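User: Can you predict the 3D structure for this chain?
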Amino acid sequence: FDIRTELLALVARMLDGREPRSALLPRVLEHLNTTPEDYPVRLYRHQLDDIQLRTTPPLVYDAWQAGDPAATRLVHAAVADYARLAITLAHRTESAKPEIIFGGGVINVAPSTFLDALRAAVRHEVPGATIRRPLLPPEFGAGLLAAYQSGHGPGTILEAWRPYYAAEEPS
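Assistant: Here is the predicted structure, written as structure tokens:
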């Protein structure tokens, strides 16, 4: 589930009348620097700016926290999809207490209430699960992979990076 892709489809549905318009619509159009008239053509022709597209999740989260019904539907769908994936993987491990780490750009910019909703959804079926965000940002993973490819062990590298770790969120 990609909330950014779903948002683009939702905006199109709001514009053509298949979905009710909400306060999210003008915010997204402004963010994408487009108009209601130009949006469908720019979307179809892939003329929307990629950086602007990648930075839409905070708009959805802000609108969700403000009670916007369209944003709420998107966030609930995202939580349901991510939770289903985590539950499925947890069952495959056959662990009663799996550690589940949610990361990626969409989740990393999500407010803590999003992760709380995700925890609740997963723990409904896997009560012993520990759910948190990654301790390290994605750049550390790239650095770790590069160091590993250069012959350095991950334990040594991670120990050297320990001062830079983010504090672990409660699970």
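The radius of gyration is 19 Å. The chain has ten helices and two strands.
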